[in-house]
Each structure stands twice: as structure tokens, then as C-alpha cells.
Amino acid sequence: ILVGIEISLQQAAFGTESVVEYSTLGDCQHCSGSGAEPGAEQATCPECGGAGQVRVAQRSLFGTMMSVIPCRRCQGEGRLLSEKCRMCAGTGTEPHRSTVNLEIPAGVSTGTRLRVSGRGESGGRSGVAGDLFVEIAVADDPRFRREGDHLFHTVSIGIAEASLGTRLTVPLIDGSEADLEVPAGSQPGTVLRLGGEGMNLLGRRTRGDLFVEIEVQVPSELSPEEEDLLRRWADLRGEK
Q: For the chain, give me the number of helices (H) and strands (E)?
């Protein structure tokens, strides 16, 4: 069985626990998965002698070949039901609503599949149950853009801040904040790095980095005083 769940980027970074609910076919409670009405006799299949398999001979260009196939009379179970279960009609299964506690490791990404052995659908009539696969979807976070194990965050600053330098507070994936020094003369597109503040690497104890991209805002509207100051600054710079 394949089911999907969604987790946040922070949960993906550090790992989390989740309760997964899903519908499946489980063992019939009335017959305990045997397919037979409780108390009814279950005779050994006379065709295969209880083995559930029979040997058959097949002719080919290379002579007679012997092969083993499931017994058709007992469907490979080695026994015959004298009376089928009235609740499941002999299938040994019934619909179930199942839950499983899932531990999601740090560093997963969208598309990661986790396997839980034996928690899939019942094999029916004492057969082996299948597995449950949980596919992870990591929700977008408006604060960060993820690229592999690295995170990117964009901040906007003014022309004066870019020219003179400034100090900013940027968010971290763990919910805290960090102070960041923006050097004087920073250009649009400047990228500053905070080492070890990215995503955890799946299966390892190291982390990626957080890169802060600088966006310089050019004002589209100026007050008369601001325009006067900017024109004087342009004159000093020799700009037309």
C-alpha cells in the first residue's frame, strides 16, 4: 500500500514523528484470517497432499521438463474449507482502518518513500501481509527556497543601507533568528553565507548552509526633500 503525507520544511530539516492513517484489507476478525467458519473442518487437499504445490511435466524441444506450480484445487493453500466464513466469504480478509506511528528522519525531501514492513494489505487466508510505503511531500516555506541540502533566503534593503552597510536579523529554519552583517558597498544579488544553518543531510549528522541573497530596492516615489537630497548626491557623484 502506498499513502502520502505532507510535512513542513522545518520537520523535514530535523525529523519528526507522524501518525499515518490508511484503509486496508486486514485479517477477518470472525475467522482470524483462516477463511473458514469457526469450528468448521479443514481437510487436507487430496490433489497436493497438503503441500499447496504440484509437479507437472511439460514437453519441449529439449525433452520433458518438470516444474512446480500452485495447486489449482486448493489455490496453493494445501487445505480445503468445508464451510467458508460467513463474514468474509472465505477470503480471510475484511476492510480495516489502520494507523501506524512513523518516525521520519531528518533530511527527507519530496518524493522520499519510507517502508514499514508487514503493515500493508493482508495476504488472506494465513498469507503473508504486504508492506506499507509512505511517500513524503514537503510543503513550501515562504521564508526559504530549498536547493538540495542548502536553503536560500532573500532580504530587501535600501540604497543607503547597501552603500553604507547595515545589520539585519534573518530567520533560521529552527525557528530562531540570527544577526547578519551586510558590508558597505553590497551590490544587488550579493549572497552572504551562514554555514551549517541549512537542512540536515539524510542519514548524516552534518547540515547544509543558509545563503542570504541581497535585493536592493530602488524607490519609485520620492518626497520633495528626498528628491532634493538625491539630486545633490548625484551631483557629488557626477551622475547626470
A: 3, 15
The set of cell numbers assigned to 149 is 541540502
Q: What is the pLDDT of residues 46-66, one digit of tens each?
A: 888 778 788 888 777 777 888
All 3 cell numbers of residue 96?
480495516
Report the predicted TM-score, pTM, of the whole model to 2 decimal places. 0.74
Which among 54, 55, 53 is positioned nearest to 77, based on CA atoms?
53
For residue 15, give the DSSP letter.
-
The three grid cell numbers given for residue 19, joined into one nine-digit string:
501518525
Give dist(CA 157, CA 147) in Å, integer: 24
The share of the chain scoring above pLDDT 90, in percent, equals: 59
User: Which residue is listed with cell 520633495?
Assistant: 224
497438503: which residue's cell? 50
Res. 80: pLDDT tops 90: no
Quickly count: other Cβ atoms within 10 Å of residue 71's Cβ: 18
Amino acid present at 223: S
d(CA 133, CA 112): 10
